[in-house]
Amino acid sequence: MELPRIVRVKQTFPDRSLKDVAGSVLAELNASPFAGRVKPGGRVAIGVGSRGITNIATIAKAVVDYWKAAGCQPFLFPAMGSHGAATAAGQADVLAHYGIIEATMGCPVVSQLEVVSLGKDENGIEAFLDKEAYNADGVMLVGRVKWHTDFAGKIESGLFKMMAIGLGKFAGAQRYHTYAYRLGLEHVIRSVGRQVLGSGKILGGLAILEDANHNTAQVTAVAVEEMETKEEALLALTKSWMARVPFDLDILMIDEIGKNISGAGMDTKVANRGVNGEYNPWPGPKFQRIFVRDLSSLSYGNAVGLGMADVIHDRLLGKVDWNPTSINSLTASSPSAVKTPLHYGSDLVCLQKFWPTVGKLDPKDVTLGWIKNTLEISPLALSENLIPQIKERADLEILGDPEAFELDPAGNFRTTLFSAHDLVSAH
């Protein structure tokens, strides 16, 4: 079987990026009532998460500066459930890799796993809050609002989820996902979030929205009194901006997965997979097979999501650290997401083995797409047989002539998805 020739394609998404991210954060917070809720000199705990949020260090620093200007003593803490292998040092290290350290933030970063119980709801769900945050004079949330990888609802990932899974640390994350298995994750997120709000410890939140280019597009100060309804509206808005692969494909090839890319390793609603192995459960383009080539170095060995692939390269398998991977998958009640797929030692063999499984007798009819990861889907490469469809789309631009894959003697790609030309053309 010969590999198809590919064309590199630029997708054009609306640019909604903020020109002055720090200035926008300060403008939002200065117009909010947050500072008036803490006496001068009070300690303010600022919870930040663990995803690859664009400009997160800039945003966190602006929030710190706001509280300092109000005469308070802010400190940052990781609000990330079981990430960082569910250790205090691991979670601090995750923040450090995003530039969130005391030297750059101008305030302490306090990472620990002790929690305080906030009581139980009518279903027996016990809510928890990071002990250091609880002992502060108030807690502020800084998090991105976006769709969740495991379910669809009016509230998915955002400030409410941070109040539950994030502020509850490992202890809360374990319990909440256990209840979610029976009651649904949105129900648990709302219930725990309401309990945390009822504690009186939350001062407000800063919601971050990103556009399809993964740029900071909006920052919104969200008051406690409107947090639930406001987050519903913000989620609907950011969902309308979602970037997608442009077509249905027989094979989607992904260069890397990782926790820095998505909580599930790959964004399930871009790759159209369920964490329990469901094929194409979401609206949008459908993919018959997924081939994942590698694990992001910023995932620190956590390979959650490899189980959603149909085939992986041996290089990915060799980078798996099964300790954080198993902790994360079991905490999230999704062991299927870490099942080991079929794996081979070369890119060529991975494709050749799966080429005949998509229901097409002639390999020339098989459609192939190639993306870096589920956050960065422009530029992408598409098989030459899709050129007529590409030309029908005003938002797609072919960047060059069709080209063949170059292979080394072991059958691995010498061809890379990105070249200097691609990156210049894409921006």
Any overview of this molecule?
This protein has 427 residues and is of the alpha/beta class. It has an 8-stranded mixed beta sheet. It has a 5-stranded mixed beta sheet with strand order 3-2-6-7-8, with helices on both faces. The chain starts with 5 loop residues before the first strand and ends with a helix. Helix 1 runs parallel beside helix 2 and helix 6 packs across helix 8. It has 2 domains: 6-13 and 243-426, no CATH class; 21-239, LarA, N-terminal domain (Rossmann fold). The protein has 15 helices and 15 strands. A hairpin with an 8-residue loop joins strand 13 and strand 14 (380-383). It is globular and about 70 Å long. Mean pLDDT is 91; it is low at 420-427.
Question: Which tags fit this structure?
Answer:
427 residues; alpha/beta; Rossmann fold; 5-stranded mixed sheet; 15 strands; globular
Stretches where pLDDT is under 50 for at least 5 consecutive residues are: 420-427
Residues in β-strands, percent: 15-25%
Largest sheet: 8 strands, mixed
Number of DSSP strands? 15
Reported by name, the CATH topology of the largest domain is Rossmann fold
Total helical segments? 15
CATH architecture of the largest domain: 3-Layer(aba) Sandwich
Could you write a compact summary of the structure shown?
The protein has 427 residues and is α/β, with parallel strands linked by helices. It is built from 15 helices and 15 strands.
